[in-house]
Amino acid sequence: MSAVVGGLRRAVSRVVPSVQASSALPTLLLAPGELAPGIQASEFAARRASLAARMPLGSCALVPATAVAYMTGVIPYPYRQDADFLYLTGITQPGAVALITAGQGDMVLFVTDPDETRERWDGARCSAAAATDVFGAVAAYPMSELPRQLPRMLGSSSAVYYDAGRHASSELRALSTAELGVREGALRALRTLAHAARWRKSPGELALMARSSALAEAGLLRAMRQSGAPGVGEHHLAAGFERDCRWGGAARMAYPPVVASGADACTIHYSRNDKALAPGSALLFDGGCELHGYCSDVTRTWPVGGRFSPAQRDVYQVVHGVQQQLLEWCRPGATLRQLHEQSVRLLAEGVSDLGLLPGRSAGVIAQGAIRAFYPHSVGHWLGLDTHDVPGVAHDTPLQPGVTLTVEPGLYISDQERYGALAGIGVRIEDVVQINDSPGCSVLSRSVPTDADSIEEFIARGRGEGEPELP
Question: Which CATH superfamily is domain 2-198 in?
């Protein structure tokens, strides 16, 4: 492999005619040397070196960009890059494949062939010159050369780390493992290695995570104040949240926002967002955005009318108390699995105290009855994907630089036997960064979580005047 890479280094200048390197970068947002705001090209090289150090010598990793998906005909969906590819290269555009070798982490890039007609419609693409001069590849090839050159490179590798089922470029999908030149038995899963490398965030990544969370916070604060205005519906709040996030620089929502009033708050991934807000109901709002690749994910529950009913407050206080205890346990050495087990125990006690189930909390847990009220995990890793790095097990001890969500909830179905508690759904979710000391920082702390502060915030906002609908 090293001989191949050396030859490619010498051939770079004649592979593809140059396109301005800046066409592949959001130059207005970047300082010199950056590939993403606050993240230097040298950090991307260090990421590749970290991945390479996890691979045995003589092996390589094959990492494709996500293929373009189409709504219909030639109309594409907004493009979103594969998280592993973005993390390792910094390239946000489609039509590229990276080959990273063990040892130093040298990268060879296959990029889109120059095509003036296509660029007239879709804009300039990352050129071979940009691949080497900006993104740090030791060599670059046009994609049309991939079927000929890639087997030559992979054939000498003792192991090839490649997730063949991923949505790769059509050029790569068209080749079988044998046609790629991979030795029999040499194919390995990339996901575990890549996710282990991505799990702990750098200072630059944490800064982007904090900025992404701040945009979500601003959108939620506005939604809290707008929710009681006459004629406001779930869709108004969803639209306002997206507007605030995108105005602040977010490329997209991290996921379809959940704006669920009344009993629909008990539907975990409710996304119709099409009802008028009824006075006296509670509203569960779960929203997040994606800023320069990094996702936020924040949930709050509040009373539409500005005051919790006694039943709403009772359920809310249980969930809030549980979340506060869980945040105290977020520290290095703890595990996400332990946090979940604690959340189950504490919420089971709360369910028993509310009179929803007879018996002691241990019995509620043992019988599995708590799942009727709390069917999801207490949280998940967060980063370049909303449900980030699933290849990292939940029993992995937390380390400084890890980011996750902490989101206990209770969902009481709309059944008469639950009386005044029927149809109440409460979830409180924050973005948490694990530190050396103190144990954690809450990146979404500016949106109030305790019941009294929520009511005070809404009342203060209402006093400043109701928002006008367009």
Answer: Creatinase/prolidase N-terminal domain (3.40.350.10)
Please, are residues 217 and 298 in contact by the beta-carbon 8 Å criterion? Answer: yes
Which one, of 213, 215, 221, 212, lies nearest residue 244 by Cα?
A: 215
**DSSP-based three-state secondary structure for 56:** coil
Query: Which tokens sit at 167?
Result: 């949505």
CA 108 and chain centroid, separation: 27
CA 96 vs. chain centroid, Å, equals 22
- Is the Cα dihedral 175, 179, 182, 187 positive or negative? positive
Domain residue extents for the chain: 2-198, 203-463
Asked whether 403 and 439 are in contact (CB, 8 A), the reply is: no
pLDDT digits (tens, 9 = 90+) for 63-102: 999 999 999 999 999 999 999 999 999 999 999 999 999 9
pLDDT in tens, 243-292: 999 999 999 999 999 999 999 999 999 999 999 999 999 999 999 999 99
CATH of region 203-463: 3.90.230.10
- pTM of the entire structure? 0.91
Phi then psi for residue 282, to 5 deg, are: -100, 155
Q: Do 2-198 and 203-463 fold alike per CATH? A: no
Yes or no: say if 326 and 339 are a contact pair by the CB < 8 Å rule: yes
Residue 370 CA to residue 344 CA, distance in Å, equals: 7
- CB-side exposure of 214: number of CA atoms within 13 Å? 9
